[in-house]
Amino acid sequence: MKALTLIFVILIALLQYPLWLGKGSWLRVWDLNRQVALQQEKNTTLKARNGTLEAEVRDLKSGKAAIEERARSELGMIKQDEVFYQVIDQALPEALPPPPVNPSSTTKP
Question: Cytoplasmic compartment: which residues (predicted)?
Fold first, then answer.
């Protein structure tokens, strides 16, 4: 009887091995599901970026406003007969403090 029980325990252990540690084990399935979820998040981010780029390409192909905006911001170009003012942010120079008053030089009445 003990030998039969031992045989059944060994047989059950052999049947459980592929389920837990084999090629299609639960751990492998869990890891693949995690990788799929990460890839889906990346795909969502990339789809949003691609949508933005598609809109920009459509804008550049169809109208002059987007081209003009790019020329102004990236290349620093201006239109003909247009006046360009460049504002430079600088700290204003500090005013010099008034000269110290010498008490000996004041006149006494």
Answer: 1-3
Are 27 and 20 in contact by the 8 Å Cβ rule? The answer is yes
Question: Domain coordinates of the chain in residue numbers?
Answer: 26-76
Cβ 60 vs Cβ 67: under 8 Å: yes
- Contact assessment for residue 77 and residue 71, using Cβ atoms and an 8 Å cutoff: yes
Query: Whole-angstrom distance between the N-terminal and C-terminal Cα of the chain?
Result: 131
Rounded to 5°, the CA angle 54-57-61 comes to 140
Please answer whether residues 42 and 35 qualify as being in contact, where contact means their C-beta atoms are separated by less than 8 angstroms.
no
> What are the tens digits of pLDDT across the range 23-33?
778 888 899 99
**How much is the pTM?**
0.47
Q: Is-contact 78 72, C-beta < 8 A?
A: yes
